[in-house]
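User: Just a sanity check before I run the rest of the batch. Below are the structure tokens for the first item. I only need the designed sequence back.
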């Protein structure tokens, strides 16, 4: 069984996220999503999520491509996650191109093209300026 792992906030879940998760799952047989906690988002990414971790987790667990959701609480956990969950592939959108090449010693690293013209930020802006 080929195990894939990816990381993200996935707030205001949209088709760009789904496109990523669909392609990530297609790289293996089992997809683990490390979901940024509310604290990690606020402290490390300066993002205030619309939906809480629990709600974002509930949404992800309902997606057919997702097999397991675990918390992302720090940047550094990727190395141990890959070991602990026996991940064969690390995948993330190409807005992170090159940022996680240090993981290549442990697993395959894949950067997937982002879906254009959609993001949580765009959604929030459009709603506020309708
Ligand atoms: N994504 C995408 N296309 C979009 C928007 C997002 O492919 N239009 C991808 C991102 O590249 C990422 C995933 O969907 O792989 C989740 O996006 P975010 O929730 O914005 O994740 P991010 O804040 O980049 O968190 O440790 C890594 C971080 O947790 C990544």
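Assistant: Here's the designed sequence for the first item:
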């Amino acid at each position: 069984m080929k195990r894939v792992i990816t990381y993200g906030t996935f707030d205001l879940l949209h088709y760009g996220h789904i496109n990523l998760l669909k392609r990530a799952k297609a790289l293996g047989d089992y997809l683990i999503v490390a979901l940024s906690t509310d604290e990690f988002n606020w402290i490390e990414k300066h993002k205030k999520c619309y939906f809480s971790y629990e709600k974002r987790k509930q949404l992800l667990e309902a997606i057919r491509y997702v097999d397991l959701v675990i918390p992302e609480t720090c940047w550094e956990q990727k190395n141990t996650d890959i070991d602990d969950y026996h991940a064969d592939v690390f995948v993330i959108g190409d807005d992170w191109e090159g940022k996680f090449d240090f993981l290549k010693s442990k697993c395959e690293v894949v950067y997937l093209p982002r879906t254009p013209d959609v993001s949580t930020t765009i959604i929030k802006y459009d709603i506020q300026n309708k």
